Predict the structure of Glutathione S-transferase kappa 1.
Amino acid sequence: HHYFTLQVLCRYQHVWNIDLRLRPAFLAGIMQAAGNKPPGMLPKRGEYMLKDIKRMAKYYQVPLQTSRNDMQRIISTSSLGAMRFITAVGMTQPHYLEPLSREFWISFWSQHEDISQTETMLAIAKQAGLSSELAQKVLEMISSPEVKNRLRETTEEAIKYGAFGMPAVVTHVNGEPQLFFGSDRVELLGSIIGEKWMGPVP
């Protein structure tokens, strides 16, 4: 769901009058603060979610290959390193945030790779257009206090806005922040900012 929202907002940033800023936050931290649990913890919901993701991929025109053990992979794969990697890129080369986020998603969902592994992160960075020197530099940054603090601060900021999961989109309308949760809320977001929804591929 995070990815569908990312894709749609990236498509609409040139269509709507919006200033899109991608802010990597740590989902587990948000869930913990809100007392929320992953959908897969409730088997029926997990089952539904995997079917729904397939339908949404078709609707949003996003390549996706689901497999039977996806729920297990979601629960057992730590995304902390990946989020720190994306955070470090956001701090140094923000124009790579969009392609990098996209490549991480494709790696996990379509290629079923373990995104917590260093080699995988470097391969993803290369795929997103980062030079191997830059990717290596980013990798060295992920254990730095600056990167850890930035990710923590962004996560705390999301919690302050009322986030309890992802995707969370905060829209500032007339100086008022409004939180939208879920990939099916972009249409509603558009109506609030006075922009026309033209489907998932405008």
